[in-house]
Design a protein that fits this description.
This protein is of the alpha+beta class and 146 residues long. Helices cover 45% and strands 16% of the residues. It has a domain at 46-141: Sufe protein. Chain: A, CATH 3.90.1010. This is FMN-binding protein.
């Protein structure tokens, strides 16, 4: 009778490193499932704020000019976002203003939110200024729970 016993020598350092890498791999998999898993980016209707139907404005003041941003909402939708008094002087001096507003307005009406609005780096300051004005107008429209 011949026995085929094999002796395996494991160094404790290798066992510890392997265990740590397996644990880190499992944690990474759970993290990826949590972040990008199904249903993660779906919004419930309860997540949407309720608005008091109407037309709300917010003003932007710069270099002696005042520009009003108008937001039209009904009880649970943002219907439109636009300028109220964009005069020729402002349109000429700031040519990205109207195109930025059109881009932002389209995205807000599509997503019904001011979160995750994309814009180019060329007009990031203009877009940020316009988004802040839209958010101010929407804050006036939100129905409080009181």
């Amino acid at each position: 009778m011949r026995s085929k016993t094999k002796i395996i020598v494991l160094h404790m350092k290798e066992v510890i490193y392997t265990t740590i890498f397996i644990i880190l791999g499992i944690v990474l998999i759970f993290l990826l499932i949590y972040m990008f898993g199904p249903g993660r980016h779906q919004k419930n209707d309860s997540d949407q704020p309720k608005y008091k139907a109407g037309v709300y404005t917010s003003s932007i003041a710069f270099e002696g000019q005042t520009l009003d941003v108008q937001v039209v909402v009904d009880e649970d939708h943002i219907n439109s976002v636009s300028f109220v008094n964009l005069n020729d002087t402002v349109a000429t001096m700031y040519p990205l203003m109207q195109s930025s507003m059109d881009n932002i307005s389209e995205q807000i009406c599509k997503t019904q939110s001011t979160d995750n609005i994309s814009y180019s780096e060329e007009n990031q300051y203009t877009a940020t200024m316009l988004l802040n004005a839209v958010e101010d107008a929407l804050d006036k429209a939100i129905v409080s729970d009181e």
